[in-house]
Every structure is written in structure tokens, then in C-alpha cells.
Please model this.
Amino acid sequence: MKALKAVLVVLGLLCVLTSAPAVFAPWSAVTAFLGLFGLQAPPDHPAVLYGLRVGSLAFALIGIFFLVLATDPLRYRPMLVLAVWGLFLTGGVALVTGRLTHMQPFWYLGDVVSCFLAAVLILAFWPKQAAPPASQ
Model:
């Protein structure tokens, strides 16, 4: 159980720490970051900024979700099922979208590999015992 909790904590912290800064980062920092990967700056349009901020906040909240799961994986076992499916789905969508949009593999493969690896690690350390019955 300790290994599963550790995986969930690391996953949660990575989601929060890599996503939360983009919620508040100035546009110049966003474009500079993308430039590090050889990507053009996205259009300076309110819809792009809105999507970046809301999407980043959603991923930070997903990180908090993983941190909550880490507190008691047996109790939250049904949510672990959702987490595993979500990770596999996100990795698959990242792979297909990255290829269809002709992005450089370096850019999207990090998401693909990390999502699939996280899902596999959760399954590898999956709790063997059933969740305790809910108290009435």
C-alpha cells in the first residue's frame, strides 16, 4: 500500500507543480517556454489565454485529486478505477492528437509515456483487499 500511496503522491505533485504555474504565468513566460521546445508562440488571443489558464487549472485540480486518493486508496478504490481509465484515455488522446497535428514527438510523448506509466504503476500496486464496507 505504501508504494501505491507514493505513486499517487508523486503523480499528484507533478500535476500540481507543472500545471499551476501556467494559471498565473504572464504571456511572455508562456511563449518563452514554448520557444525552448522550438514551438511558435500561439496567437495572442483571449480564447487561447482562456484555454491555457482553464486547462492548466483543471490539471492542477487533477493533481489534488491524486493527492486525496493517496490518503486512503482502499476507501477511494472506485475512484482509482476512474483514475486508471482516465490516465490511459489521456495518454491515448495525447498520442493520437500529437501525431495528427504533426507535433514533434518530444512534445507529446512525455504526456503519453507519463500517463501510461502512471496507470501501469497504479495497477501494479493495486490494493488486493476489497474496500471496507461503508459505515451506516
DSSP finds five helices and no strands in the chain. The mean pLDDT is 91.
